[in-house]
Write a structure and sequence with these properties.
52 residues; Fur-regulated basic protein FbpA; mainly alpha
Length: 52
């Protein structure tokens, strides 16, 4: 794999790990690992907008 693909995979895995800690496993019936990095970032951004 190229460096860019590696960086994308690492970033995606980091965000998925954070989402899993908040018991978020799916978006619209798809597992997080099936989503693109952009989609995972959207889910994570939504998490950060929620009131605590």
């Amino acid at each position: 794999m190229g460096r860019l693909e590696d960086a994308v995979d690492i970033r995606k895995q980091q965000l998925i790990s954070k989402l899993l800690k908040h018991h978020i496993y799916k978006k619209d019936g798809q597992q997080l690992y099936e989503l693109t990095l952009s989609e995972v970032e959207q889910v994570y951004a939504t998490l950060n907008k929620r009131p605590s």
